[in-house]
Structure prediction request, 462 residues.
Amino acid sequence: MPINENLVQEIVQEVMAKMQIADAPSGKHGIFKEMNDAVAAAKKAQVEVRNMTMDQREKIITCLRGKIRENAEVLARMGVDETGMGNVGDKILKHQLVADKTPGTEDITTTAWSGDRGLTLIEMGPFGVIGAITPCTNPSETVLCNTIGMLAAGNTVVFNPHPAAIKTTIYAINMVNEASIEAGGPDNIACTVEEPTMETSAIMMKHKDIPLIVATGGPGVVTAVLSSGKRGIGAGAGNPPALVDETADIEKAARDIINGCTFDNNLPCIAEKEVVAVSSVVDELMHYFINDNDCYLASEEEQKKLVDVVLKGGRLNRKCVGRDAPTLLSMIGVKVPQNIRCIVFEGPKEHPLISEELMMPILGVVRAKDFDDALEQAVWLEHGNRHSAHIHSKNVDRITRYAKAIDTAILVKNGPSYAALGFGGEGYPTFTIASRTGEGLTAAHTFTKSRRCVMSDALCIR
Ligand code: NAD
Prediction:
């Protein structure tokens, strides 16, 4: 048989390329010096993942869920220590939520049409190697939740994480690969670089072996990804308003709002960032905030000082993001007991502490004449992010009007914002809410390509 020289050359090149993949230099699984090496390693691992049975993928995911549960506290402490943001107790809950409720392979389903002309299936296939960019606000939660979904769909993933959370991210990625190896899978199903930068991000985004980019972060990164020329899933910023009308149970609304707003020191992008309440309930709501929910009422002078510190030079001060209320108040020279959970005040919607997405437990309350006025102000405050909004009302018609007007990926009615993530609400969690590009709460099904598989005039056995 004649030798096909081209084929031989191709095989040799492929083998050489595989041999050139550098070992993870840090001794940790999936961690590389160069982005190109990280992508090459993830590509090699994806060939194996692609050929696995669904059952094998699920075994890796089960092993990873166990490791996340075991390491929930370690990861929570690492995240808080490294970024200075959030609190350990709530971060433990977030990791447990990822472990217990992130959808796995059961989210990959088949649609079928069977009839006289045969059988047609829509299969959900993997993209290959996904490039993912993650925020410092939920670093390991996002990496772990993304990995479960992406792997369930048959992909591997290369992360370019926020540099301020690199140690926590490396710990999480090493753990993912240990789980894979323990369950009989390949190393490098998730990879990253030791020092992520804008350059490594650009290499990843332009890489020929990365067909899909998933960005979780503020407006800058989502715009960058959507300008990359590749398919992009953009999970961007929010500024979720909580609307309260006179039909609501005000005592419960106050409790739900403060519970949601203070969860992990207000870091989640879905958390209540401001309240818009009809005038007749504002005083009652404030009463419950302050007297029953450990809130501190900031005076006008204190608000001005907070603006100077929190929005120093007109920019969000990272040193304030995810800090608790006593720490924030201490920055303006106000000492309060440690049980103070949130700083509240009343102000117009244009107040900088209300209109900006702060990600800290400062909650401004905007007074509205009536429901129509409240709806209009809430829509303005959401800034067209189409991310998340919340409402406390017993009037179904109003809730429907609000839902249509604000048009967000998430709308929680009569509950704390975190109900949207499956805490005290139905449904699955995610830390990548694709607000800008419309996929909504991402899960394994989001990370698939639709593939039609047609058998003509056969296999219909009805
Ligand atoms: P960030 O935008 O500063 O950083 C997010 C990631 O993007 C980081 O890895 C960062 O290095 C990278 N990045 C930033 N600009 C970039 C650019 N131009 N090109 C390439 N990469 C870039 O955000 P953060 O402070 O880490 O996180 C908080 C923000 O993320 C908030 O706005 C929050 O609402 C949003 N967020 C959204 C979701 C969601 O699911 N929609 C989830 C978490 C956080």
